[in-house]
């Protein structure tokens, strides 16, 4: 017996140890995945190689988390279907490449990195508090990029040998910063994304201190953007902010005009550079038109699977209508729409842009309702700005509404900036830029899950499957209406049952029922006079009638009434017995004067003779006529019946008061 107890104790201890070890591995897997994610967010703009290593670490932690944590399930984001179609069609396009080995190598390295980034963000970001940490890492990296860009501009970098600008058209232009990115145009695209994210947070934030900080950050990023002299990126951010100002807030439009005017005044070269877009002074504009013409010819010749993933530079010499064999390597079409259709075909491009523009619409349509107090504060003009200014508020936690709503707006505008920049340049040819795009798409999908579902606003939301969404909204609304109707019907039934029970238990007896009950009570308590027969109706038993089924509630009410009637009869019998015991001798002494006794009140005591008269006139025996004695007994019997009726009426009144008291207590 002792050995069995020892073995059970040992098994329990081992089970406990296994459970503790399992919990430790769950925490470790979660930490590995999360810190790998944060490392990728931080190093993506600074060092793509380090960011890739961090991505692989985060994916390993995520896989381990799926294995050890049974409660951690795979989550499908809203635009997983077009993403999978894009990956599949891109893989098939390798078959049409002139160099399948190179295309396959380029495909699984680039598309693999995009998909892993999408999975890492989409599966691990599931709480609003995680967005704060991601914002901190992204903001820290952006500050480093800006500082390094200012350093390049201040200390000078000669770009004449880098072929980023036409020296004949712009001989005075010698500085175009690129910071940690490979190219000024790529840096400009990144700065557009950063400005859009900061702008979204700025518009949704209600703290004056944070708004000032975000405004200063946007001005610094706009100044660094001007140092790149990227015409397309500068025009794109101006169009986005001005369009938002026209549609939503005119103050944004005014601020945008002021900032652009100040930059043009401080740097006339920027004004000359921007206005050259609308002329053919710069050879880059003419070259882009030639690239697009060649790319359209590629699409016409290979409409389904394209020329192969990453094979643009190998196929372009066959469609060179502009350079005519010059020793220049053209790696992309300077237009993301034409470039994707040329490399992976029209079906693959349709799948990608379904995913791409669906993300924009989803992010801009995701709404986060503010709290009641916050909404009231927003309705008050200058509500937060009347409070005293304190920098210590910057260290307080942001409200979830400010962060989630600001990120949703910022991500939608950021991806829109990539779409507009893609008209004149292929930013997605750069690996970090593409990873950043897929990261933003995953964050938009995670934000859509954090948005509270409301039936009233769900009909206004759009997605890639509008028909299915509207059908789901209709079904949910119908189920809710049916549930409300069922609850209302249930409440009405309960109210009617309660009213019926209350009326049956506490309703007053009808007049005929009271009379019949009173007659029965008198018949049971009254004694018939000697020599006088009771009426046949009082003694004859009632005719038996067929019994019909009754409602259980009626039977319960009948039982209550019978109990009350029995109690009344018992009280009357006790009162009459006490009255008869108090005056047994008086009734025999008053036989000589029956009329006076009958006329006396029931509570009056019979008059007694004085003691002197009794002693002077002793009682003499008298003869009593039998007929007179009989008449006297009948008179006494009538008097007693009259007194009994008055007593019953008095007791009935007190009984009705008792019933009303009981009813009120209930």
What attributes does this structure have?
elongated; 71% helix; mainly alpha; 666 residues; 25 helices
Run of helices and strands: HHHHHHHHHHHHHHHHHHHHHHHHH
The total beta strand count reads: 0
Share of residues in helices: over 70%
Report the average pLDDT across residues. 75
- Spatial gap, N to C terminus: 62 Å
Give the radius of gyration. 50 Å
Number of helices: 25
| Percent of sequence in beta strands | under 5%
Secondary-structure content class: mainly alpha
Major sheet attributes = none
Uncertain regions: pLDDT < 50 for 5+ in a row? 375-386, 454-464, 506-518, 520-547, 592-631, 658-666
The general outline is elongated
Write up this protein.
Helix content is 71%, strand content 0%. The protein is mostly helical and 666 residues long. Helix 6 (184-204) runs antiparallel to helix 15 (400-421) and helix 18 packs parallel to helix 21. The longest helix has 42 residues, at 2-43. It is elongated. Mean pLDDT is 75; it is low at 375-386, 454-464, 506-518, 520-547, 592-631 and 658-666.
List the helices and strands and how they pair.
Layout: H1 2-43, H2 48-68, H3 80-93, H4 100-124, H5 128-155, H6 184-204, H7 208-228, H8 231-247, H9 250-266, H10 268-275, H11 283-301, H12 312-315, H13 336-365, H14 372-379, H15 400-421, H16 431-450, H17 455-458, H18 466-506, H19 511-525, H20 536-539, H21 552-582, H22 584-589, H23 594-599, H24 611-616, H25 626-665
